[in-house]
Design goal:
Elements (H helix, E strand, L loop, with lengths): L31 E6 L2 E3 L3 E2 L3 E8 L5 E8 L5 H9 L8 E3 L4 E4 L4 E7 L3 E6 L16 E6 L12 E5 L4 E2 L6 E9 L5 E9 L7 H9 L13 E7 L4 E8 L3 E7 L4 E7 L2
Parallel strand pairs: 1-4, 3-10, 11-13
Antiparallel strand pairs: 1-2, 4-8, 5-6, 5-7, 5-9, 7-15, 8-16, 9-10, 11-12, 13-16, 14-15, 14-17, 17-18
This protein binds copper (II) ion.
The site of copper (II) ion has 5 residues, from loops.
Amino acid sequence: MKQLALIPVAIFAVTLVAACGSDPPNRSVGPGKVDLADFSITMPKTFEGPLVDFDITNSGSVAHELDLGQVEPGTTLEEASTYFTEGGTESGVLIADPGGATTIGPGARLGYARTLTPGTYVLFCAIPAADGMNHAQHGMITMFTVTDANKSDLPKADLTITLDDDAIAVPPLTAGTHVVAVTNIGTLSHEMNAGGVPIGTDLSRGEEIGTWMEGGQVGPPPLPIEFPGGLKSIAPGVTVVLTLTFKANHTYMFSDDTNGLTTLIDVHE
Ligand SMILES: [Cu+2]
């Protein structure tokens, strides 16, 4: 287990085989389509919140993520770009970091439903590009607003994953698409990165994936890896309902790298 903890799941590489595009189960509100391409984000500009329900597809050729930030009302995209991609702090536009979605492999589809405080938000991808810049600097940044018009509840989940201060508790998983409620039951903020490799893969080679990822995902990945998507750090008490697709005959790793927590689950059929 010691070796496994070294695997940088947060920056794992692209999947070799795209996840199937099966429809996520019906939701209580119409999903907001979020398309991730190389390098742009296409999505609605307004959501009737406070429940937002993203149906995220990575139609690009490399892995992407969605960093989420609540910003001061009236912030322009230019100001947000400066703040989030160039480390600018002058404008001080950030109000809160509620926690977006981690690495989503090419071809993967992720459902992401939660409540957000009504306001103005920025979504961007901070994954490194081959030229040393990140994807947001190439155009993967956009803004949307959340209103207070809809009183929908969170979608019903079939499975629950709990993030605690000393463990990530994952129930037995089967292949296919599942609606998973991920709840932080701890006293600290927690994240949940997720990556799957064919059962039997030498997990000690995970660092090669990290290096390849840091280099901008140039050429084929050193190991077959698939990224269903996961959760950036969420505060205690927060629940996000993810629609995740798992492949048969894969070992999935769920990790909270900030707190050094890892759980491995084999998905057979
Ligand atoms: Cu990206």
